[in-house]
Automatic annotation (TrEMBL):
Pfam families the UniProt entry points to: LytTR (PF04397), Response_reg (PF00072)
UniProtKB keywords: Activator, Cytoplasm, Phosphoprotein, Two-component regulatory system
Protein name, as recorded: Response regulator transcription factor
Modified residues (4-aspartylphosphate): 59
Membrane-spanning parts: none
Gene3D superfamilies: 3.40.50.2300, LytTr DNA-binding domain
Domain annotation HTH LytTR-type: ranges: 142-242
Transit peptide as UniProt keyword: no
Domain Response regulatory: 2-126
Organism of derivation: Facklamia lactis
SMART domains attached to this UniProt entry: LytTR, REC
Origin superkingdom: Bacteria
Coiled coil regions, renumbered to chain: none
InterPro entries: CheY-like_superfamily (IPR011006), LytR-like (IPR046947), LytTR_DNA-bd_dom (IPR007492), Sig_transdc_resp-reg_receiver (IPR001789)
Length: 244
């Protein structure tokens, strides 16, 4: 878990960090590290390989030829669809504009309000963050190992794992495509939510939107379809009913 603060005013960014630290001490939850940035590029460098649920506090009015906070949020969504985004602004009129960016902001915090107000808003953000962290579906990971590293990828980021060559697999999701060595049998044994749907493919049942029993395919959250073999159809039908 990590909390990221982006504000080009180094003093205000530090103030938000201090308030977040104070409020976080009222929770039993460990929220992980808190990072502050004045440049969005340094933030992007850190989150590009992220694998945890994150909370972002973004200043909207970034200066010095930077992207504004709304555009930064849009870029963050390319890496992180689940993270909580909170905008910090001196201008409340940005709130309705943000919906045009489709970044699913959690809330807005107005800079020109009292410290009591800001602390209450931060507390509400941490409450929601805690709730998301403790959601069982956010605690599931797919472990991918290769010669150089072992990665824990949140299960929500992987829809299917497919065979591409002998003992070589690809894990694929809306924002990820990772090649690694292994077998479908090994991955299925490690993760109960990965189910074989045909000879060369495991599907993440948490990411299934619809089952078409007539045409024998699964519709995934991304809109992609995966073919089901006749042999595996009855098992998947049973699992779909259990998921309800």
């Amino acid at each position: 878990m990590s909390i990221y603060i982006l504000d080009d005013d180094v003093f205000y960014g530090q103030k938000i960090k201090e308030l977040v630290e104070k409020e976080s001490k009222t929770f039993t939850q460990n929220f992980g590290e808190i990072f502050t940035f004045t440049k969005y590029r340094k933030l992007f460098d850190m989150i590009e390989e992220r694998s945890e649920l994150s909370l972002y506090f973004l200043d909207i009015e970034l200066k010095e030829n930077q992207l504004n906070g709304l555009d930064v949020a849009k870029e963050i969504r390319k890496y992180d669809q689940e993270g909580l985004i909170v905008f910090i602004t001196s201008h409340g009129e940005y709130a309705p504009i943000s919906y045009q960016y489709l970044v699913s902001a959690l809330t807005f915090i107005e800079k020109n309000q009292t410290e009591i107000y800001i602390r209450k808003m931060i507390c509400k953000c941490l409450e929601e963050y805690q709730k998301r962290i403790n959601d069982p579906s956010n605690q599931e990971y797919i472990v991918i190992e290769n010669e150089l590293s072992i990665k824990k990828i949140p299960s929500k980021e992987i829809e299917v794992i497919e065979t591409v060559q002998a003992h070589r697999l690809v894990a694929r999701g809306p924002l990820r495509k990772i090649l690694f060595y292994g077998t479908l049998k090994e991955m299925e044994a490690k993760h109960s939510f990965l189910i074989k749907c045909n000879q060369s493919c495991l599907v993440n049942m948490r990411m299934v939107r619809e089952l078409d029993t007539h045409n024998r395919w699964l519709l995934l959250m991304s809109g992609d379809k995966v073919e089901i073999s006749r042999r595996n159809l009855s098992d998947i039908k049973h699992l779909m009913k259990e998921e309800r």
